[in-house]
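# nightly structure sweep
# worker-07 picked up a monomer target from the shared queue
# config: single-sequence mode, recycle default, output format = structure tokens
# input follows
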Amino acid sequence: MFLGEITCREDFYQYLVDNVDGTFGCGLCSAPKPQKTPTNILQHIESKHFPDMFSYPCPECTVVLGTRKA
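# output follows
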């Protein structure tokens, strides 16, 4: 699969698969179970396929994390 340019978190949508049964999956692997909403799949795509691509500072301390879910 051709990997498109990732410049912002919204670019992960290009790897979101809209299944015919109304569920969503990962276009890069078949690891996660299909989900009814895209949120968990987008978190999977970021954490498993593009970890540490973006940084997310904690609003309560000085820690900077590599994924939004972290």
